[in-house]
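Colleagues,

Please find the record for the two-part complex below.
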Amino acid sequence: MAGSKGLTGRQKLGWAVVSVVVLVYALFPVAAIFANSFKTQADLGNPSFWPRNWTLTHYEMIFVGGAQELFLTSLRNSIGITLIATFVAVVLATLCAYAIARLNFPGKRIILGAALAVSIFPVISVVTPLFNLWRTIGLYDTWPGLIIPYLSLTLPISIWTLSAFFRQIPWELEQAAQVDGATQWQAFRKAIVPLAAPGVFTTAILAFFIAWNDFVYGISLTSTEAARPVPAALAFFQGASQFEEPTGAISAAAIVVTIPVVVLVLLFQRRIVSGLTQGAVKG
Amino acid sequence: MTATAESTRKQRRSSKKPRRSDRTKAEIRLGWLLAGPAFFVMLAVTAYPIAQATFDSLFSFRLTAPDERSFVFLDNYILLFSDGLFWRIFGVTLLITVVTVAVELVLGFALALVMHRALKSLRGALRTAILVPYGIITVVSAFAWYYMFDINSGFVNNWFSWVPGIDSDLDWFSNFGTAITVIMASEIWKTTPFIALLLLAGLAQVPDELVEAARVDGATKVQQFTRVIIPNMKAAIMVAVLFRALDAFRIFDNVFIMTGGDANTEVLALLAYRQSISRLEIGLGSAVSVVLFICVLLLCLLAVKGFRVDLASGTDSSGGKKQGGK
């Protein structure tokens, strides 16, 4: 905090105000839905921000109650499909980015250009033909039926981000290690992997965010609980009776799927920012 | 940046060992062996479907009556373009794109300047906070904003009842103006952090000496900003705007959750969804998909040719700068 000594009282106050404004901007809607998730059904009908009586009813409903099947299966689908899509994309992209950063071969620019083109591609445009094709070949409403199209979301950003990361690695270290007597594999494992791992990890986080966020594929290419991910399932929630809005249950489910995002952001804020600005492809 | 990095690498390598052609061949083979799978998977999940959609759009084809499929050439497109409804939906999509990107650019700049100037200790906390909207699921954001404004459970009508036009009976989602405002608010909230972070990277690229020199020469704060800082980060601004514009044009989640297209808030992506997935009109739905794709393509070409946005260099230079800054 050495730097803050130079600030006058007024400047300090100014920064405090600015920080509060930014924090409120960033967290207000999250706080609102968080508050909703703890409101009783009666509280949901009155216009106060915080619940008058805090209740866990809605969390009970999605974890052990009536909405359990809908929510828990979709949560399992979301986690499984997202993790697999992220893993496959990062593995393929790591090989690809390594080749782009290290090797000289014609077609490099084409590959990077294709990644860029795919990342601006409107998802809805590929949904119609996939919907039709998946129904014909039996991939409709299955995990692979979502994992494959998710690659169109996760691969481009992974290739760009990793290429940017790998360009910065001092590959000479590998040769230096070999000169010092390491085998090629040892040199790669001991010198290069520790330098490359943070980039790969950051890329995985970004890819995870994108796949976790998907709604278009999720709602178009599934029809039952067999593969429906959480964002799509939220649109199917129903109230306890037909006169009751499922506001509380949706809010509780929304908070549950926001937890992984918040945890990742809290732990890896610096890495996410550097990954985003280096790859600079839409996330 | 890419070119220089590659050429120095090439020089380095060629100065070490004289290149033999079989070595070059082996390198090319290895390169495609490693990069090929990713490349072909990407093409398979996008190029093939869009080709199929283009083909399907030339047919009158309903999944409910698969036998009545018939070739109609451009009839689906003619039907679309001659329908006033399509043009209204197109207009709404364009409106959302223009307004959200403009607001996000201003807000994003403010956020980027705050983070740029903030003390180190504060910077981490601010960046963590704005990454929450970035990472949050769009559907969750849509529900959060929907419930805030909802006539039954929302608090906005109550809090802002002193504003003329807002009272407890105002149903935000029943007419176009108010509904589209909330939809755009959610979109802006969720995506401004992305723009802010790109602009922050751009700000870091502006040499401090330039700003200092302008200050010494007597430039006011505003002049420093408009004459020195903005021109020096034009590339970052263009890339941020283009990516966001392309993304905003595909808006789907927020509209689907909040209004489902009611109150005239339907957008192109939702139209495509309703035609093909809900109504199983594969022919017409494909036509809408192709039109949407061509719009995004045109928007991109316009930016790259018209404004000379070099997407590749823009993304690259921010990466290069990061490296230099460390």
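The longest helix of chain B spans residues 21-56.

Comments are welcome before we finalize the supplementary table.
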